[in-house]
Automatic annotation (TrEMBL):
It comes from Ruegeria sp. PrR005. ATP binds at T67, P68, A69, G70, E71, G72, K73, T74. GO terms for biological process: tetrahydrofolate interconversion. CDD domains: FTHFS. It catalyses: (6S)-5,6,7,8-tetrahydrofolate + formate + ATP = (6R)-10-formyltetrahydrofolate + ADP + phosphate. NCBIfam families: PRK13505.1. GO terms for molecular function: ATP binding; formate-tetrahydrofolate ligase activity. The keyword DNA-binding does not apply. The keyword Hydrolase does not apply. This is Formate--tetrahydrofolate ligase. Its EC number is 6.3.4.3. It is an enzyme of class 6 (ligase). Gene3D superfamilies: Domain 2, N(10)-formyltetrahydrofolate synthetase, Formyltetrahydrofolate synthetase, domain 3, P-loop containing nucleotide triphosphate hydrolases. Pathway: One-carbon metabolism; tetrahydrofolate interconversion.
Amino acid sequence: MAYKSDIEIAREANKKPILEIGAKLGIASDDLLPYGHDKAKVSQNFINSVQDRPNGKLILVTAINPTPAGEGKTTTTVGLGDGLNRIGKKAMICIREASLGPNFGMKGGAAGGGYAQIVPMEEMNLHFTGDFHAITSAHSLLSAMIDNHIYWGNEQDIDTRRVAWRRVVDMNDRALRQITCSLGGVSNGFPREAGFDITVASEVMAILCLANDLKDLEKRLGDIIVAYRRDKTPVYCRDIKAEGAMTVLLKDAMQPNLVQTLENNPAFVHGGPFANIAHGCNSVIATKTALKVADYVVTEAGFGADLGAEKFMNIKCRKAGIAPSAVVIVATVRAMKMNGGVAKADLGAENTEAVKKGCANLGRHIENVKSFGVPVVVAINHFVTDTEAEIQAVKDYCTAHGVEAVLSRHWELGSEGSEDLARKVVALADSGVAHFAPIYPDEMPLFEKIETIAKRIYRADEVLADSKIRGQLKEWEEAGYGNLPVCMAKTQYSFTTDPNRRGAPTGHSVPVREVRLSAGAGFIVVVCGEIMTMPGLPRKPAAETIRLNDAGQIEGLF
């Protein structure tokens, strides 16, 4: 049987005018700023007006460690949201926006898949409502103002060797990772080393996604450390007087974007911080607003539960004062086989032994998520090549670990295929058994926070960090930053810092390469192993096959 591509399915969507979707949530047309007919921003006035309402229940969708076989976390998030609406619940979806870099690189799109998608798919994966461009511009304004400050006399006595603020662009461009800027003589400033990150790795992105409102946004922007003086004291964004203009550029980007699923259910798509170098969740303002207008809010966190769910719990929920009522861990039979040692080319053949062997990775994630005090259900995202015996092997493994695994066929059937999962999620969320708590307190010393995550989540024996890194953490504690959570930046493919170690390894160490203070976002970034904040394009980027066809339609977005 030939299946349609995601973009073909999305193109056939029977979209409703966005004002109708807003009306489902009780948002009046005056409180929606339309971007065309099928997307709109929600006004701050409306957001302010619903603050006295009780919160709905928050459902987190996370996953096993990503494999080339694919897990389908966003697809499951969308499918579950549609399923909840299908069984009569008032539900809403909150996901991140897509970055242009990965879309033209490996991914080719990030709006779900099959019959569980958010539309308009093409716009969401391209310029959308311009939020990422605004973030890039605000970041670039600060970059320009730092170098301009140095050029016009350097009143803050910035040590040009210690400018910490890198530049950004929303594209995978390895040539920009390390650059020399200000060449060309006196009129161009003082030559120095610099570099580019991808926009989703910008601290401005993390700040926008953690800020409660424009006032909070401006304060956080002002708190960004941009450089250090010769006496090693920090220079803040507010010392350069850039935070006001940056807030102006981000004024509209702060407003959540309302769109719809293929089944015309409402979704907020807002923000997109990296899940390595930042916390990898959609914006706090979108999630908290959704909780005021829906009874169930389905959201996701980037990568596997060891990164995304851990940061969702320890950073986003802690900072935003919210708590999940249930967690869905997405797994696929194909990914279990890959974790069990099967090569990608051989995934089509039945192999229940490999499934059983690979389930160790899933089991580790189940234990970890439960340790936050929230109930868990496993969603088996169905692939047409899955056999009954393989599916049963996953179900049996989950039963032995005290959780239920539910087969979900949303990719193929939309909400009809996710009804069982939706019912199970409602039962868990309504059971009242969730007693959520982060796994470390604010007052714990920073290095102990790192050790707690490494030992409890990654199951490492030790954290390796030299005296320079430990000394830096002590300095930050003495400067008043000791209460911040830690944001672990490591490979998403393994519990270890080695991307090739699948399954559930033990007896490993976590080497800390460097630590960075994101004072505006409000966390300490802990870089473990090799992590790229500016990806490169693959040998055959998706961009090679993305084009307009004769009908003027986009081809090549997956």
